């Protein structure tokens, strides 16, 4: 009996270690992800797919990239940061808040001019009179053009097309791109500038025109692991988001592979 016990001891030990490892993984929970507001539906779906593979579901927090970056600067507990532009990621890297070697460009996007679904506005980006007629019925909604990536892209595109001077006094600023989308959805703005993926997420708006890719800096979404992260799932989830399976989800929601636009 003693010999049998000795032989089984390694098996019992392995079982105990496996159980403890699983308990620690569950206790750790999923990584906390700070993500640009435009990623909401797609990242929720990607997190669900990751959880179905047996991993703890990530905890997702969405807001304007600028607001999230400031949270990282202030030491908010988080594991991954997904920015809607490279500038804010550059800032955090310069401040040594991103783990070296973990940054990669995850996605691309397009920039579109939208209207409420019930609006009869029809014009193209070269039709300045048509734009002004539409704006006589309400303001142009866009995210803060001085801080939020979607607003900065919008200002650059409108300026490139010679339209910024026409619309500058007719703008209603929103805290993030989804807030700008909501203003157009509710009819509180006659027009709005959002990402193509945002327009796809709503049946209450229609796209009037897509801004030329060369009218604004490339819309890129870099991801990086926050240096203070200790979650054992963070690196694996970051790799999953760059996988073909995740890209299929993102493309279904209107995003593109980086560099495709």
Task: Describe what you observe in this structure.
- The protein is of the alpha/beta class and 261 residues long.
- It is built from eleven helices and ten strands.
- Strand 1, helix 2 and strand 2 form a beta-alpha-beta unit.
- The N terminus is likely disordered.
Q: CATH homologous superfamily of the largest domain?
A: Periplasmic binding protein-like II
What's the count of strands? 10
Which descriptor suits the 3D outline? elongated
Order of helices and strands: HEHEHEHEEHEHHEHEHEEHH
Largest sheet geometry: 5 strands, mixed
Q: What features would you highlight for this structure?
A:
D-Maltodextrin-Binding Protein, domain 2, elongated, 19% strand, 261 residues
Q: Mind sketching the topology for me?
A:
Elements: H1 2-28, E1 32-36, H2 40-52, E2 59-63, H3 65-73, E3 80-82, H4 86-94, E4 104-108, E5 111-116, H5 128-135, E6 140-143, H6 149-160, H7 164-167, E7 171-174, H8 177-185, E8 191-195, H9 196-200, E9 205-210, E10 220-225, H10 234-241, H11 244-252
Parallel strand pairs: 1-2, 1-3, 6-7, 6-8
Antiparallel strand pairs: 3-10, 4-10, 5-8, 5-9
Helix pairs in contact: 2-11
